[in-house]
# Entry
Amino acid sequence: MSEETLDFSNGEFKQLLNQSSELVLRQFENIHNQKGYNDHPQKEVEQWFDEELPEEGLDPSKLLDEVETKVLNTATGNLGPHMYAYVMSGGNQMAIIAEKLANTINQNQTKWHLAPAMNEIEKRVIRWTAQMLGFPMDSGGVLVSGGSAANLTGLTVGRNVFFEKEGIRKTGLFGMKPFVVYASEEVHSCVDKSVELLGIGTNHLRKITTNASFQIDLEKLENQIKVDLAQGLQPFCIIGNAGTVNTGAIDDLESLSKLAKQYDMWFHVDGAYGALAALLDDLKLEYKGMELADSIAIDFHKWLYQPFEGGCTLVRNWDNLRRTYYKKAAYLDTELANDGNRLEYNEHYFQLSRNAKAFKVWMSIKAYGMKRLRAMIQKDIDLTDYLNEQVKKSEDFELVADSKLAVSCFRYVGNMESKEEIVQFNRLLMPELEKDGRVFIMGTQLKGDYAIRACFINHRKSEETTDYLLQVIREVAEKMIVQKKQLIA
Ligand SMILES: Cc1ncc(COP(=O)(O)O)c(C=O)c1O
# Structure
């Protein structure tokens, strides 16, 4: 390593790159047997990293060895097929390569001339995303960190454009009459955070109850809008779910868009989990009306199998982003160099410095093609249907909620009879499954009752790994029952 810079010699760098590639390859060697979770106690993990600030550098090859044992080999099994919790996709190999290349050239995705190719790639990914969702081809958009940021961005654009006449960017919310956001009770909690961050306050977020399919109740929604109007409040925005996190429910987006129009409101769609399943011909109709949204949140690190992080907000035109974020600053002014065709991302988004998130999306789409990506989404859905069938066929599980997407909610019932006992047992089952670690799965609350929730969003799953999920849950549950009996005896 030279003393003048932080660079290694070409030979050393090549050796380290090769060594790191070996680490990557070893992660894939035995991927089908990768545990869902490695149950190391928190204190132990903390202790692995308990060291003083290093004054001298470590032999980088030894550092890579340390990384392999402490970080890579202990990682939660997002890559492998045994992860079912939250919405964790398995990433993809082309994106691993893309991330390495993007980090090599270290482009700042802000002013056009700081990253000409990357800026045009981001614009292209926005255009392709608009095409996937049936949005206008000249839609504006921006790559953001994930679904939470994508919802916040969509709602920020909504707020700033909707209340532009009131001068909201200058005066803030002072002196304005309270305005109200509407969504179903199944809406993701990141929307609550956005509503708080935007100064609207969760007292003005109306969570409307859902029907038996967990879709927003349209009649109750309209009644609530009328009540709020009568009380002198201003209805501002309806948020439709294009795939809820709990059950994958898709609201009646067409009716929501009509209501938003009728009451002169902004229409935002949270498609972080489910919007990309609209690519499937069989499901297209379920999403009717999504293409009419004023803004939509999408997550590429969910159903486009990207590694974290990568989300996207689409709005109907670039000007909406500019009206929300544009700020002039002498040190950022590129007006003279710009012939009008360069899109300056710093004028269309909150961040100034940004990494090139669109690059891995672009490389993945080009490498795999949409046909293959669609097939992977379909496979996730087919495997969820397969799980539902196995649950229904079994004598010791019950299906609680299925979905048109790839989430299944079920419970282990064993020989238990009362619902109370079953619900309580399933709650206690979760920490035991975490200790076991062969699969990683979590639960949720559906209309007040606990259920196990399995989300399929990994192209490395199969019927065999799905059978394994039920087998592991059954084994851990039976072990708990035996232990309970021993305690009583
Ligand atoms: C429907 C929905 N919206 C928003 C989010 C938040 O996305 P992120 O975790 O990328 O911030 C999620 C995450 O699971 C989600 O399922």
